[in-house]
Amino acid sequence: MGSDDPNVKELAVDECWALLRTHDVGRLAVCVDDHPEIFPLNYAVDHGTIVFRSAPGTKVSAALSDALVALEVDGYLSDSHEAWSVVIKGRAEGIREIGDLVDTVDLPLFPWQPETKNLFIRLVPTSVTGRRFPVADPDTWRTPLSNVRRSPLE
Fold first, then answer.
1. Counts of helices then strands in the chain (DSSP H, E)
2. Which terminus of the chain faces fewer neighbouring Cβ atoms within 10 Å, N or C?
3. Pairing mode of beta strands 82-94, 25-32
4. How many domains does the chain have?
5. What are phi and psi of 149, to 5 degrees?
6. 110 is in which domain, residue-wise?
7. pLDDT for 45-90, tens place per residue?
8. How does pLDDT run across 40-53, given as a tens digit for each residue?
9. Helix (H, G, I), strand (E, B) or coil at 25
């Protein structure tokens, strides 16, 4: 990931997991027909992995293929005016063993849609990276109207 900006702090893996535990929604990136697709999902942290539940479909088929997947979760710390981003890359596996399924039933996984979502998927990380950085004051990006060039059509 790396950044040349001295204000960007690379996070240790344990910091990444701690931040992931404070949220429950992320974006899953998968490869579908040789192009990337991104799906929002609810997740739970479970013993150094990420678990989500879903219904059969494109997201699940792509996640369970041989291709690597990625999950990104972001947040904002209002007290320090800092943002953070954590990215997990790895392989997704269907949870099928009865003992593993019983363990996942108690995870706080609450999908937004009411349809049946009986498939439990575990993302086993090969890489966990994160960074934290200060959020710029919005005035930094404001341009006085007198400096804005007007279109000849106005």
1. 3, 8
2. C
3. unpaired
4. 1
5. -75, 135
6. 9-133
7. 998 999 998 888 899 999 999 899 999 999 998 888 899 999 999 9
8. 999 999 989 999 98
9. strand
